[in-house]
Amino acid sequence: MEKTVTQAINHRRSVRHFDPNAELDTDEVRRCIENAILAPNSSNLQLWEFHHVVSKDKMKALSAACFDQPASKTAKQLLVVVTRKDLWPKRAKANIAFLKSAFGHKPNHEYTKREKFALGYYRKLIPTVYFDFLGILGWIKYLFFQVAGLFKPVYRQTRNSDMRIVAHKSAALAAQNFMIGMAAIGYDTCPMEGSDTLRVKKILKLSRGAEINMVIGCGVRDENGVYGARFRVPFEEVYHQI
Length: 242
Hints:
Helix content is 48%, strand content 11%. The chain is of the alpha+beta class. It has a 4-stranded antiparallel beta sheet, sandwiched between helices.
């Protein structure tokens, strides 16, 4: 029986050692990845990929690229979460096609004001924010919006580095969906930022525009797989009701 959301959140820990005798159902892990892509993401561009690694040879190579951390070395499977900011034109076109289908494929003059706004968002606003050339246009847009922001609220994150952060935030939301989903069915995970990302990309034969968000070790926790009790700073220090 699957855990409730609250139970899964409380069960989830960063497991450093996985039980060598406990195997994972690959289809169940895949189902958790399918749930991962339902995560909220910026402009629904879904600038991510998920590389589900079950090959022993690939896992051994990836573990070495993760410095042979126990969480990678003892994992039964690995999930590499990848950002693909470079795919924004393709994903914007996919959104436009979806919207046209949802709106009923009709002449432009028959679209409602709301429908025109939605299509214009992907035809005009997304290219304005994402298109760049050697980082120069990003800085020009950044300076322009900083000045415009003196007079009205504006979107200020327009540099190439800003958009990279946006893509990684969205990918992290999907990764959390995955880890909570795994916890719900009694599986365990450990998100790892410590890796030689260039080597990880080479092992997976990723394109130049791909970036590694995190590598997640997957398995069932060993008896001593969790390093101590969970520590969080007092809730009152981070919670502010306004």
